[in-house]
Amino acid sequence: MTDAEDLFLGTESGNDAYREAVERASAAVVEAVSESATPYSGASPDRLDDRFGGVECLPDEGQPLAETVEEVGDRILSDSVGVSDPSCVAHLHCPPLVPALAAETAIAATNQSLDSWDQSPAATYVERRMVDRLCDLFGYGPEGDGVFTSGGTQSNFEALLLARNWFGRERFGRRVEETGLPHKAKAMRILCSEAAHFTAKQAAAHLGLGENAVVTVQTDGDHRMDTAALDATLADLRKREREPFALVGTAGTTDFGSIDPLDALADRADRHDLWFHVDAAYGGALALSETHRERLAGIERADSLAVDFHKLFYQPISCGALLLRDGDRFDLVERSAAYLNPEDGDLAAPNLVSKSVQTTRRFDALKPYVTFRTLGRERLAELVESTLALADDVAALLADASDFEVLNDPTLNAVVFRYRPESVGDEEVGPLNAAVREALLRNGDAVVGRTEVGGTTALKFTLLNPKTTVERVADVLDAVRNRARTIAVADRQLRR
Ligand SMILES: *Cc1c(COP(=O)(O)O)cnc(C)c1O
Predict the structure, then answer these.
(1) Which residue among 8, 145, 287, 399 sits deepest, i.e. has the most Cβ atoms within 10 Å of its Cβ?
(2) pLDDT of 1
(3) pTM of the predicted model, to two decimals?
């Protein structure tokens, strides 16, 4: 059978099939998100392993799409985590905005690829315009430039790749991307705070520097990089003839949402001639808000910055960007491929492949474009601001409850805490909180995050969802109490 008429867009029957397919898929989604009253069905890893263990993913003969979509709804969407549920408050994992979902549909169906202009004519210019607007938003001048990425991991990697190549030229007078790292590169060091994202180390590993090239600087009581400790670390590295070349500041640490003193870091970067990168994957959204924007002061002095739209900008995964204060520095990663960016092209069109570490690349810029145009900056800022206010209310609620302890004064919308009634001894607190978190997930009460503070397990709310209310969080705290009680009873029975 080679009749492909209704399998591809373009013909009447193909277009009809497309409309029907999208309708079926969205109906299955709507059923999954409205039917489930809980943020998770509670299905255990074993149950899911059993269910999918025997599924034939590549049968010799297929079945009608209607049947496949029905299966997907019944067996997959039904046991997906409900990111749009107000009690799903664990990770930097956002409920996607509806306008962005419309964009996602168009992105998939039109399948533009941002590597070369002839594969993405209008899309190339939309991405460029979005990048210009984002550079503006973060206070970069007209020399600013950037590229959309798959997220913070890739943005941080490319930023440190640029920094490494820059330093190779500056310090060793060579193009390390061609000749490889010189022996002296063993002394190269990247500085970030101890609360920085693990991808700084991961990037160092990928870049041939080794993750030991990352030196972590102590944080203060608010989990921000301590500038006195940074000065001491820099002095120590100089004394030991190490070669610090990059300083990574974080605007919104993953656990606490803390923001490093970016201006003070920029001063150090200037003084010591370091590439200053700001990881604003989480906190970048503050730039939308007239009230909170100030907390990012200094970000405009960064050589590069990473921002994620699939976190506090409510875009479906994946969607991030890397921005450079001086766009010419993309030269540091440019490579040419005759079929993608021919030198003698008579069309003076940009081929964005030269700025990216990806080749084939999605038109993810359309999602924030559609979102920004539809909601406007003010409305988007209100969504973000409401979640910051909620985090303050939740921290106050926890502080008032005698059986909880709150472990941070929220900067963004992350609240770290423990359940700690008087009856629970010090050694039991960590295991109890860990067990409670699992019980909440298993019973579908709530999806709550987990981290460690001072070597002891703590719980975490990442309150991204503007639909989450303080009452809803109070219900989650009651669920914590109930599950803890059940666990205590079970423990006692076990011990008997
Ligand atoms: C989420 C996050 C990252 C990683 O970004 P991905 O989009 O998951 O690749 C890096 N840094 C920070 C601070 C983050 O919050």
Answers:
(1) 287
(2) 47
(3) 0.96
